[in-house]
Amino acid sequence: MEDQSRRQFLQNAGLAGLATVSPLAAAPEKSKELFIHHVYFYLKDPNNAQDEAKLLEGLHKLSKVPTIQYVHIGKPASTNRSVIVRDYTFSWMCFFKNIIEEEIYQTHPIHLDFVKNYSHLWEKVLVYDSVGPKNADEA
């Protein structure tokens, strides 16, 4: 699904649709598995200190979504090895109890306001969502 159509779908779905989803009725793996959402933001004007400060302001507001268990806002580290990517402006990593909590985050008004009010600042975002691999005894 394209980013814009996914975003529009999430905005239209809203919290009401998720309110009908009970974690108890969800598949066991969806309600138990730690979910990590990691986003890399690339500013349109990476040398603009005002844009950087504005995006940081937005990320701090975004961190108030109640389903987030832990959040880390980062800048590229000064490490220098060939495998390290350092061309982004901010990294946003947050942890959720499970994918259901992350889906609530995606449609939460704070998240929707963040996209609406700050997306003009970035030229692209990269998103890496992850869950833990199953242990051999869980398979």
UniProtKB/TrEMBL annotation:
<dbReference type="InterPro" id="IPR011008">
    <property type="entry name" value="Dimeric_a/b-barrel"/>
</dbReference>
<dbReference type="InterPro" id="IPR013097">
    <property type="entry name" value="Dabb"/>
</dbReference>
<feature type="domain" description="Stress-response A/B barrel">
    <location>
        <begin position="35"/>
        <end position="130"/>
    </location>
</feature>
<dbReference type="InterPro" id="IPR019546">
    <property type="entry name" value="TAT_signal_bac_arc"/>
</dbReference>
<protein>
    <submittedName>
        <fullName>Dabb family protein</fullName>
    </submittedName>
</protein>
<dbReference type="InterPro" id="IPR006311">
    <property type="entry name" value="TAT_signal"/>
</dbReference>
<dbReference type="Pfam" id="PF07876">
    <property type="entry name" value="Dabb"/>
</dbReference>
